[in-house]
Specification:
Helices cover 40% and strands 13% of the residues. It is built from 16 helices and twelve strands. Bound molecules: adenosine monophosphate (AMP) and magnesium ion (MG).
Length: 466
């Protein structure tokens, strides 16, 4: 059994279309996230029962589900698209967890909706497994993120460059409201809808906010934390369009995302990001750009226009300082120090050495406490000098063990897990999932998963896979 309470479906009709998922021929449960189900107060026995599987596949809706495709707009690579919306996803409804927090239960890859444009509304197994692995790793590291409750094979072929096995991901989010959701109503001049949306978001995510300006401040503060957390893991989102930025502050829409192996600030993997707009080092600036779009949407709700523009601008301009503070705290933790502004130089010196020598981002930080970081530098002289200055700060190894994952879902391991999954073997996926959801533990069987790619395993491009 599952008990839904659907607050978004109670919003005005132009917020969504009522669109049920499209049934699939041969649903098979590939993965079910028992710890997440428990956190949500959902019954895993029911979820893996025929009725539960029917819901997770989109074949039959339990009582209380109100499937909707949400409307949103968005700036994609800087260009505005007034209508995007859930083209391959359907929100089944919301559940209230035992602790009182509310979560969306959404199917991704569940068939066409009125927002599908030319797309088929489907997903193939690759992006489903990728999102499952990466989102659950992020959650394990404490990064605000959507979660993955289940992956289901559809038994159908999804046509991309070739025919590929279809799959549906069940995504859990504190909501799926995006910057682009605000843009959808702002571009239509629908002030009433904007106000209803802002009120909904305040009640749901920012209960202490006392109006649109303090809502904006709240989103800005959370995004500053989230982006700093990405940076500290070497994570590159890949498609930071405004429709892929959640106002809750959660990381959302894992498409052509990637973690760096060798450190370089300009790292970019997405095949569609040819200009490097969304490269690692640019993510904080892009966040500011996206938040400025949100600010623009909220200005009509803020009273007298000149004063509203001034106040909203001030809020957006607060992002860099909030982000810098979060960055300093996060990278300080990676070095085991309670970092002060004068420590910035110590952190940047290490990053510069890493960039010069293409040192592995994850292995350097994970190897600082036991000395193995040194082996990541072909020419360790600079690193040795840096180490002496760092040691003088008396690093706390427990802090470092918490901040620095031993393992990340490396691109080549994800690709290997997907390739095996496509040929029917989910064991590599299961092992990688286990390893990256216990990122601070060491187990002998996981040793290889901590290694960087061999030259012929390096993944240089990642794809949206839509
Ligand atoms: P993205 O930036 O990849 O999250 O997606 C941008 C837009 O494209 C969203 O409106 C999606 O719903 C839509 N989209 C992506 N893939 C598909 C698909 N296979 N079928 C229909 N719509 C899609
Ligand atoms: Mg998206």
């Amino acid at each position: 059994m599952i008990h839904f309470d659907n607050s978004y479906a109670r919003l005005p009709a132009d917020f969504y279309t009522r669109t049920p998922p499209t049934p699939v021929s041969d649903a098979r449960l590939l993965a079910l996230n028992a710890p997440l189900a428990a956190r949500l107060g959902l019954d895993t026995d029911w979820l893996s029962s025929p009725d539960g599987l029917a819901m997770l596949a989109g074949n039959a809706m339990p009582a209380g589900a109100e499937p909707i495709a949400m409307a949103y707009a968005g700036h994609q690579f800087g260009g505005f698209v007034p209508q995007l919306g859930d083209g391959r996803a359907v929100l089944l409804g919301e559940v209230v967890a035992p602790d009182g927090l509310r979560f969306d239960i959404q199917l991704k890859g569940s068939g066409p909706t009125p927002f599908s444009r030319r797309g088929d509304g489907r997903a193939w197994l690759g992006p489903v497994l990728r999102e499952y692995l990466v989102s659950e790793f992020m959650a394990a590291m404490g990064v605000p993120t959507t979660r993955s409750l289940a992956a289901v094979a559809t038994g159908e072929v999804v046509q991309r460059e070739t025919g590929l096995p279809g799959a549906v991901l069940t995504r859990v989010a504190s909501s799926h409201i995006r910057v682009g959701t605000f843009e959808y109503f702002a571009v239509r001049g629908n002030i009433e809808a904007l106000r209803a949306l802002a009120d909904h978001v305040i009640a749901r995510h920012y209960p202490h906010a006392n109006g649109p300006l303090s809502l904006l401040d709240g989103v800005i503060a959370r995004q500053a934390e989230t982006i700093a957390a990405w940076m500290a893991l070497g994570f590159i989102h890949g498609v930071m369009n405004t429709d892929n930025m959640a106002v809750s502050g959660e990381t959302i829409d894992y498409g052509p995302c990637a973690f760096m192996d060798a450190y370089h600030p300009d790292a970019v993997f997405s095949s569609i990001d040819q200009m490097g707009r969304y490269r690692w080092s640019e993510q904080p600036q892009i966040a500011v750009w996206n938040l400025a779009q949100l600010a623009t949407c909220l200005i009509p709700l803020m009273g007298e226009r000149e004063a509203a523009i001034e106040a909203a601008t001030r809020s957006v301009h607060a992002f860099p300082a909030l982000y810098q503070a979060a960055w300093l705290r996060r990278f300080g933790e990676k070095l085991g120090i309670d970092a002060h502004p004068e420590d910035r130089q110590l952190i940047e010196r290490l990053l510069t050495l890493m960039a010069q020598q293409g040192a592995d981002f994850t292995r350097v930080f994970a190897g600082l406490s036991d000395g193995s970081a040194r082996t990541e530098f072909a020419d360790p002289a600079g690193f040795d000098a840096w180490t002496r200055d760092w040691q003088a700060r008396e690093p706390d190894s427990e802090m470092m063990a918490h901040a620095n994952p031993r393992r990340i879902p490396r691109n080549h391991r994800i690709e290997q897990a997907i390739a095996a999954g496509v040929s029917g073997d989910l064991a590599p996926f299961g092992q990688l999932l286990d390893a990256v959801t216990h990122p601070r533990e060491d187990r002998g069987e996981w040793r290889d998963l901590a290694l960087g790619p061999l030259p012929d395993e390096i993944v240089r491009r990642t794809f949206c896979g839509t």
